[in-house]
Amino acid sequence: MAVPFLRLGVNIDHVATIRNARGGDAPSPVRAAQMAEKAGADGITAHLREDRRHIRDEDIAALMANISVPLNFEMAATEEMQAIALRHKPHAVCIVPERREERTTEGGLGVHQDQDRLSAFVAPLRDAGCRVSMFIEADPAQIEASAKIGAAVVELHTGALCEAHLEGDFATRDAHLERITSAAKLAHDMGLEVHAGHGLDFDTAPMAAAIPEVVELNIGHFLIGEAIFTGLPNAITQMRSVMDAARPPAGS
Ligand code: PXP
After folding, report:
1. 2 located within any domain
2. Which CATH number is 192's domain given?
3. Counting atoms of ligand 1 from 1, which one is nearest the CA of 135?
4. Nearest 5 degrees, angle CA 33-CA 21-CA 86?
5. Ligand 1, atom 5: closest residue by C-alpha
6. For the chain, how many structural domains are there in total?
7. In 34, 59, 220, 229, which residue has its Cα 20 to 30 A from 236's Cα atom?
8. Nearest-atom index, ligand 1, CA of 105
9. What is the pLDDT along the chain (252 residues), one digit of tens a residue?
10. Assigned domain for 151 exists
11. Does residue 13 belong to any structural domain of this protein?
């Protein structure tokens, strides 16, 4: 296949986490998004969690009004979130599982187990023109279910791969990478657009970038953390360059 361009989506949730620690307006997630855009981000991702622990409702409106790149709105499959998405009509809606007690999105969505409900849930979002993405584990049953319910995109969860890498368990990491690589191929063959994300850093983003069917990486926590030391534009520029270096040549 001709290898497509790999987009970098920057998740700015944790700028809001820092803001909320003091309860004021700074640092501004919109300012971070604009800076990310200027530094080469191809999209901005924001997750409005049910408990509003980082991004708030007004951030979504402000992001929609003040950025030029596409907004990827992450949300749980609840009626409240569906209504918010339908009000703003972002470029993309990524449906994620959400549990209040978790620190971050710990696993993929059970699309296969909840097909009828999710099929009805995503239909109005699709009708409103949003690209609907399902955040799933690299599991053929979840990919097939995502295609069946009419999603346009699947985002493959890279959390376990990244964790194994950090722990130095390279056999487990490579097994995850193999699963993600074949899942990406299966999803692409089924007509789905393939994204990947969660836990990616300068070491692990290249592994995902090397998979030709993956066309977008969504990266947040690492980039915002790295920005403390080198600045957000530098962190993004460096991420862009490690992604590009790992990408198979366009004609291959
Ligand atoms: N993609 C999805 C669907 C996510 O839920 C998250 C975390 O909010 C990310 C990507 C980014 O993960 P991280 O912040 O670990 O880079």
Report:
1. no
2. 3.20.20.70
3. 3
4. 50
5. 105
6. 1
7. 59
8. 5
9. 789 999 999 999 999 999 999 999 999 999 999 999 999 999 999 999 999 999 999 999 999 999 999 999 999 999 999 999 999 999 999 999 987 666 766 779 999 999 999 999 999 999 999 999 999 999 999 999 999 999 999 999 999 999 999 999 999 999 999 999 999 999 999 999 999 999 999 999 999 999 999 999 999 999 999 999 999 999 999 999 999 999 998 766
10. yes
11. yes
pTM of the model: 0.96
Q: From CA 249, how far away is CA 252, in angstroms rounded?
A: 6
Domain region containing 31: 7-246
Ligand 1 neighbourhood includes 94 CB (under 6 angstroms): yes
Task: State the residue for tokens 């799933």.
Answer: 136
Q: Given the CA of residue 223, which atom of ligand 1 is nearest to it?
A: 16
* Catalytic status, residue 188: no
C-alpha distances in Å from residue 175, one per residue of 96, 185, 187, 238, 252: 24, 16, 18, 27, 24
Annotated catalytic, 88?
no
Is residue 1 one of the residues assigned to a domain? Answer: no
Residue 103 neighbours by CB under 8 Å, 6+ apart:
none
Respond yes or no: is residue 198 known to be catalytic. Answer: yes
